[in-house]
Design brief:
Oligomer: single chain
Bound molecules: S-adenosyl-L-homocysteine
Helix content: 25-40%
Number of domains: 2
Largest sheet: 10 strands, mixed
CATH class of the largest domain: Alpha Beta
Radius of gyration: 21 Å
């Protein structure tokens, strides 16, 4: 934007004003930008249009979470989820239309992959939900549709809009990027100026099972992922390991033991996510009793362990249930 404004021969501070109008005051038109001269507003309107995501559909769950289906300008669809928990208001953000990773247990994989989202589209999910819910969003998780580390350039640019004081003004420290564990992307993140928190979907401590369930694991061995995770936790922020608990696949005590062995010496949090079922997929969540045993075993370790409460399951708004309204 700064370069566009400069090319037009307009003072740089104007770009900040325009930015605030768009991202903080939800201006849909240049005409409302009253601290900018009439002539400039007119010339901007002739050259540019302000576009945004359109809400196609909203679904609310009893627990207060709400799923938004957005229509993009090219008529693709993405979903994002608003999750209120007391003062904390979180949005689960999508970064790609569909996902190319094809994890066997994930509903988004069933959509296939259409394209990467643009930075402004990613940030617009947040602007629009904030506008609709009339609350200040406090936390972000990049855990919606897609693999953020396969779209890092746009994700990093979106983070500029999101964390800028003239943009959405949400701190990077309250933003978590979740990845299936891509070595190249992790390498890039480590050296980038981004200060976000990192979550790695480890899910299967057994490499063979991991490769079967998450094809991307074939090119990204656990050992290399953990080496980078260790570095990240020492140089940047504590890392969270996500662990989707699936019945009979990774829910035995042996799996918990293996997990702890792998994570030994990495200061980290383990987030257990009981599997959210999807009508078209054959996987199930383990029984409450098995989940409890697994959880209790991990609690004996030095790691911080959280057990994710299922949010918005009945509206298919849980992790791995986002499929852009494509799957009925
Ligand atoms: N591609 C990124 C972000 C999207 S997936 C990643 O892999 O981290 C977000 C999280 O949802 C991941 O931890 C994934 O393992 C988990 N997940 C996928 N399908 C799920 C399901 N049906 N139930 C619970 N968690 C699921």
């Amino acid at each position: 934007m700064n370069t566009v404004i400069a090319d037009l021969g307009i003072e740089p501070y104007r770009s900040q004003q325009i930015f605030q109008w768009i991202w903080q005051k939800n201006a849909a038109d240049f005409s409302v930008m009253t601290n900018i001269s009439k002539e400039l507003r007119k010339s901007l309107s002739e050259k540019f249009t302000i576009s945004g995501l359109k809400i196609e559909k909203k679904l609310s769950a009893k627990d207060g979470s709400e799923k938004f289906l957005f229509r993009l300008e090219d008529n693709n669809f993405v979903e994002a989820v608003f999750i209120p928990e007391g003062k904390r208001k979180t949005i689960c953000v999508s970064t790609q239309v569909g996902c190319p990773l094809a994890c066997k247990f994930c509903a988004t994989a069933l959509m296939g992959f259409a394209r990467n989202m643009k930075a402004y589209e990613i940030a617009d999910e947040i602007r629009i939900i904030q506008r609709e819910k009339k609350v200040k969003i406090t936390n972000l998780v990049f855990m919606g549709m897609g693999e953020p580390l396969l779209n890092l350039k746009e994700v990093a640019e979106a983070m500029d809009i999101i964390s800028s004081s003239v943009g959405l003004s949400i701190s990077q420290k309250r933003t978590t990027i979740s990845t299936a564990g891509l070595v190249d992307g992790l390498d890039y993140l480590l050296t980038s100026p981004l200060k976000v928190k990192l979550a790695i979907s480890l899910n299967f401590p057994n490499e063979k099972v991991r490769k079967k369930m998450m094809p991307v694991a074939k090119q990204n061995p656990i050992k290399e992922i953990l080496k980078l995770a260790r570095e990240y936790s020492h140089t940047k922020n504590m890392v969270t390991f996500e662990y989707v608990l699936i019945d009979n696949l990774n829910d035995r005590l042996k799996d918990a033991q293996n997990l702890l062995k792998l994570l030994k010496g990495i200061p980290s949090k383990i987030n257990l996510i009981p599997y959210n079922p999807h009508p078209t997929l054959p996987y199930k969540s383990p029984s409450q009793e098995k989940i409890k045993k697994f959880h209790q075993y991990l609690l004996l370790s030095k790691h911080t362990i959280t057990l994710r409460k299922s949010r918005g399951r009945e509206i298919l708004a849980g992790c791995g249930q986002l499929a852009g309204g494509v799957i009925k």
